[in-house]
């Protein structure tokens, strides 16, 4: 499988930088993209980066990874807690997926404690802000070796 990874971001993550900075900090999605691309170059992994506010487009992006990308890094944002469709897409494609959240969802509201992604993810990283994406990239690098 190719040494390439797609990073998929769900709803409202396009607003990072101005969205609830007390929770998500000042980092923008562009900053996260630049940081993960730079790290990817260092460790020899090509990166596609995608964001959508629409559930179906996220499903399409997951399906599109099959046969094209060795792994998926997924911050499904609020759809994490609601979407059977995203869980089914990950199962159907079988592409190793790491679930990432900027915030520690377990220290927040109860409804954020349940994830439809975790049962089908290779691993979960949350609470480390933008660094979580870099950690996920390192973890995937080992998985797709
Ligand atoms: C989030 C956590 C989710 O609960 C929330 O709906 C988000 C962002 C995170 O990165 O911390 O939109 O996925």
- Total beta-strand segments: 5
Residue-averaged pLDDT: 96
**Which stretches are low in confidence, meaning pLDDT under 50 for 5 or more residues running?**
none
Quick one: overall form? globular
Largest beta sheet: what is the strand line-up?
Answer: 2-1-3-4-5
Say which molecules are bound, naming each kind only once. 1,3,4-trihydroxy-5-OXO-cyclohexanecarboxylic acid
Element string (H = helix, E = strand): EHHEHEHEEH
Number of H/I helices: 5
Cα-based radius of gyration, to the nearest Å? 14 Å
Biggest sheet overview = 5 strands, parallel
Percent strand equals 15-25%
Oligomer: single chain
Structural class: alpha/beta
What is the terminal separation in angstroms?
9 Å
The helix content, as a percent range, equals 25-40%
Key words describing this protein structure:
145 residues, alpha/beta, five-stranded parallel β-sheet, 37% helix, globular, binds 1,3,4-trihydroxy-5-OXO-cyclohexanecarboxylic acid
